[in-house]
Amino acid sequence: xxxxxxxxxxxVIDYHDPNTGAYNSQLRLRYSDNDDGIExxxxxxxxxxxxxxxxxxxxxxxDTTLSESSYVGGEKIASYGHRKIVNAVNYGRxxxxxxxxxxxxxxxxxxxxxxxxQFTASVDTLTTSTLPEDRSDDSVWIEYQKIHDGYIxxxxxxxxxxxxxxxxxxxxxxxxxxxxxxxxxDGYIIQAENNVxxxxxxxxxxxxxxxxxGRYTDTGLVNSVLESEVSWYWKNLSNGQFLTQLSGMKxxxxxQDSNIVLDGDTGLRGYPSHYQTGDRKILFTMEQHFFGQRExxxxxxxxxxxxxxxxxAWGDTNDPAIATTAGNSGWLKDxxxxxxxxxxxxxxxxxxxxxxxxxxxxxxxxRSDDISNxxxxxxxxxxx
Length: 384
Prior knowledge:
Structural class: mainly beta
Number of helices: 1
CATH topology of the largest domain: Porin
Distance between the termini: 24 Å
Number of strands: 22
Shape: globular
CATH class of the largest domain: Mainly Beta
CATH architecture of the largest domain: Beta Barrel
Strand content: over 45%
Largest sheet: 18 strands, antiparallel
Radius of gyration: 22 Å
CATH superfamily of the largest domain: membrane protein fhac: a member of the omp85/tpsb transporter family
Number of domains: 2
Mean pLDDT: 91
């Protein structure tokens, strides 16, 4: 494929084999020649296919070069080159003696990885002092999982007229490890995540996720993020539903290239890319969905949505280029309407969800003079 967006353009060759024939393993090869660098990725993995799967494993190599930028109010004010190299391997087992078939599975996964980040000045880098520091991390870790079997089958939640599966049972994982870093004191990897869902009756479903991903050193938490999201789906019409969603993120001593962003690509649909930046954000969304029942031209299902977004990102960016430039850190809101199209003749299922084409007309309610009264958006998402 060929792609072009606000950040870069390029040509991509992507090969995905969901079953190589050897141990139910999957192979992914990707090569992307972009105007700001090259991406090379190889992944061979055998996932936990279901709760009874005995073992998992993965080998991954990723070498990506691209241009990173600093933004204020959606305007690029500085950029720099970033090359990231990742080599990782992991292996895990289902703990049969501590699992109960039909109820839950317990698992242990072991992994090692090496990550390198190299930064170079670009022609529009303000000063060399705005460059992030090169770093190299070598880590080893162990992860524990407990997954309860609470799967349900439904439809017209995140897709259009397709069977959808949600695990409402408690899904917990925790990872602990040791990392040797070239720029910080050696520290400990700490990760934890919990997902759970609840059905109140035939018309109400609530999904909740909370996760922490970080590192603890002698100086405290470094490059760590705590995030949570609550979604309430209410089937208030025979062919429609009302969605209310609240999410938030809080960062701790984030690296300069790991700032938290709120923009049109991350849920605030009426505003440009990278409009607000900081070390924390909050986003509230309300949507009314309408699901069409007809398959048009034997090619796609269609639907419509009316939505409202409100949110803000603020706090320390650890980026001199942004810290010295005033930006909009207040609350931002937008309203919009849109059409949704779900192709029925394309094999575009990816990561458990089919692509849904979004065509939106959005009005930003707190726009500055450099933002248009209305925003036209055409995107492909993995949900309605």
